[in-house]
Amino acid sequence: MTPFKRPLAAAGAAVLLGLTLSACGGGGHPTDASKKEFCGGVEDVITTTNSVEGDEPTEAEWKKLQEAYGDLGDIGTPKGISDTERNGFEVIVDAITDLDYDEAKKSFGDKDGEDNIPGVSKDDEKDADKFFDYLTETCADQLGG
């Protein structure tokens, strides 16, 4: 699996593929979203991700992905998410929204054989994995899982 197609969540047959690249969790995203709003934002990310036609997004597709992740960041997370899961959310959202297309293109493909988020600490990688687990559990019903 490439660093650019890292599974964010699986809810039944629906698989969310995220484009996780370098970033540090920034914060500032709301912490009081309803579960329905949050999972709706996740569903929008899934739809946008699934609309990428090739193995690598075009610049226009990248901008749409950034918008979908930006919208998810604007929605924020529900109350009750752990600090670890919350940090993973911030790492993922900030990774996508902060990276310009030219920099993103450098990470397309699996050139080094690694499945990680370049430039992100191992602890943040673990937090992102915890967020993926949270996402799967929290949104399974709404996403048909």
Automatic annotation (TrEMBL):
Residues 1-25 form the signal peptide. Keywords: Signal. Residues 105-125 are annotated as: Disordered. This is Lipoprotein.
